[in-house]
Specification:
4-stranded antiparallel β-sheet, 2 helices, single chain, globular
């Protein structure tokens, strides 16, 4: 049975089973299908962590190689790694490195070993699931919005070193770790309040398909931006070589 995982602020992780029923209908010539969500199991993080009395959970991402594992960000700054089907097992707790609430998460598209987390103080932490503390902390200290809370993160699906970050001041910062881990290469302000930031899927071997950045705003508008050659798709051989270079780079941190 396919499963959907949800998280609420109070720390309730619910696994929902997807049930499809075939219904015979007199109204339509063909049979219709009804899709229902059935609660399969529930994990209470507050029950598992009674020492976190005012725990607020802010985001959840699944392990890309094994969906039985999930990462949860919290207002304490800790990132909790859970085995969803393992009862009350906490696999690991990742530390923030600084005293700040964790707001959002992004799993690495190229390896299940790495994870990004955005924080209230404007930091973006790179984690390895093998180490409790961050491998790297990205923070633009020279920027006028250096302490602006990080709200959304997207890891480029085509450029392993490139990260897109949206902050509370409604700026999108583009980091390219192959050029600098001190400053973003671009910081772009937007007038409309951005509520959603998504990148098109990973390269599929076709160089004809363009890469897009999709932006949703609070007035219901959706903007699709065609990424330039600098940030878009590249030949598969170069793409694979960049992944090897990136994984070698982060393994040495």
């Amino acid at each position: 049975m396919p499963l959907i995982c949800s998280l609420d602020e109070d720390g309730e992780i619910i696994l929902w089973g997807v049930v499809v029923k075939q219904n015979s209908s007199k109204t339509f010539e063909s049979d219709s299908k009804e899709v229902m969500l059935v609660k399969n199991s529930c994990i209470s993080l507050k029950t598992m962590h009674p020492d976190f009395r005012d725990l607020v959970c802010t985001d959840l991402v699944l392990d890309i190689s094994n969906n039985d594992y999930a990462y949860v960000s919290t207002n304490y700054g800790f990132i909790l790694h859970y085995h969803l089907k393992g009862g009350s097992n906490t696999v690991k707790t990742f530390h923030p490195g600084t005293d700040s609430s964790a707001n959002c998460l992004e799993a690495c598209p190229f390896s299940s070993n790495y994870l990004l987390a955005g924080f209230m103080n404007g930091n973006v932490n790179l984690y390895s699931r093998l180490v409790d503390n961050p491998l790297m902390i990205l923070s633009d200290k020279e920027s006028s919005v250096s302490n602006s809370s990080i709200q959304l993160i997207q890891w480029s699906k085509t450029r392993p070193f490139v990260i897109y970050v949206k902050d509370a001041a409604n700026n999108i910062h583009i980091w390219d770790l192959s050029e600098s881990d001190i400053f973003p290469i671009y910081s772009i302000p937007f007038q409309k309040n951005i509520t959603c930031l998504k990148l098109s899927p990973a390269i599929d071997g076709s160089e004809d398909n363009r890469a897009f950045l999709v932006i949703g705003t609070d007035d219901g508008s959706v903007y699709m931006h065609n990424l330039s050659e600098e940030h878009g798709k590249q030949p598969k051989s170069i793409y694979e070589e960049h992944i090897k270079t990136f994984l070698n780079y982060v393994s040495r941190l």
